[in-house]
Structure formats: structure tokens, C-alpha cells
Amino acid sequence: MVASSSPSLRPRIVPHAWRGYWRLYAPAGFTLFALNGTAIALIPADAVTVFHTTNPLWAGMLLFLVLGGGGVAQLSPWPVDVQQRLRWGLASLLGGAWLMISAGFWNIPGLLWGGMALQALGSGWSFRAALYGVTHLTDSSVTATMVSFFYMAAYCGMILPVLFTGWITDFWGLPVALGVLGVFLTLIGLRTLHQSQAMAMGSSALTE
């Protein structure tokens, strides 16, 4: 009998690929989708609070800025280095999130627009860099598996923080919930930035 040459549905993922996934790309995907998911969920309420109007036009424009701007940012050729793009993207996401939270506290429309623009830029950069990094952790036989795990972490980031924010809001109000969520995601983002810098330095040392 001739052995089947069809690819296995359970490819072996080497340990270093798992380390790279858990240390860098899973937290990056979680943070990216958590910040964008929370922003998208809160844009209608933020638009009413900041713009003092129930006209859905403003919420629609903010959503268009975040989603459309993120798509355009993915096409940007800069930064060229993947790790640098990921770091700049995460930093922009965190900065945009805190501008959005500040806009809700102080009712300043300019902060809300600026925060959404930064989140759009950051989401486009970080998503493209993280997805590229995941697909290049190991050989092509396990690429689909690594991408699936990346999206699992990312969708957990979209769902769990929104549920957490809603639960905290019932007890202490939305501003406190957003502040707690912002601190939590900032800590994850800073750790991911550190891991990205360490990975970039390790790669540079290997090539020298």
C-alpha cells in the first residue's frame, strides 16, 4: 500500500513558535481587538455625551474613521520593520484609547476625534504586523493553525473586556469601568511592547 501524502490536520508546532505566540502575538491580538471592540461598542454613547446630540451621523462618522482608517493604515509602507510597526501600532492604540477616555471625562470633541484617528492608525499597523509575524513563526505546514490560535486570542479580546466593562459599570459607573479597563490593557500593551523590543534585539544579535 502507498502511504497517503495528504497533509495532517494536526501539524506539530515547534516550541519556539509557541513561545513567540504566547509572549508576543497572542497578547498583541488580544489588546488590539479589546481596544477596538470596546471603542466600537462605546462610540454611540460617547458621541451622545461629547457632541450633546442624538443624531447618529456623528457615531457613524467615528465608526467610519476607526474602521476605514484602520484599513487604509494597513496599506502604509511605513514602518518597514515588522516589530517596529507592531510597537508603533500598539503605542498608537493605547494613546488613542486614553484620548477617548479623556474625551468622555471632559466632553472635548477634539480629543475624541484624535483618539479615534490614533486607534485607526494603530489598529492598521499592529494587525498587519501581528498577522505577518504569526505566519512567519515557523514553517508553512502550521501557518493555518497559528493563524487560528491568533484569531482565538483576538476574539477573546473583543468579547471579554466588553463584558467586563458592562459588569463594572453596573457597580461603579462607566467612567470607572473605562479607567480600570484602560489600566489593564495598558499593562498588557506595555508588556507586549517590551517583548517585541526583546525579540527585535535577539534577531539583531543573531544576524551580527
What does this molecule look like?
With 208 residues, this protein is mainly alpha-helical. It has one domain: Growth Hormone, Chain: A. Helix content is 83%, strand content 0%. Helix 5 packs antiparallel against helix 6 (174-207). The N and C termini lie far apart (49 Å).
Domain tally: 1
**What is the CATH level 1 assignment?**
Mainly Alpha
SSE order in H/E notation? HHHHHH
Radius of gyration: 19 Å
- Look at the structure and name the CATH superfamily: MFS general substrate transporter like domains
Describe the global form.
Answer: globular
Structural class call reads mainly alpha
Which range does the strand content fall in? under 5%
Average pLDDT metric:
85
Count every beta strand, where a strand is a DSSP E run of 2 or more residues: 0
The parts where pLDDT drops under 50 for at least 5 residues are 1-7, 204-208
- Assign the CATH topology: Growth Hormone, Chain: A
Largest beta-sheet characterization: none
Distance between the termini: 49 Å
Continuous helix count: 6
The percent range for helix content is: over 70%
**What is the CATH architecture annotation?**
Up-down Bundle
Q: What's the topology here?
A:
Layout: H1 15-51, H2 56-74, H3 82-106, H4 109-135, H5 143-172, H6 174-207
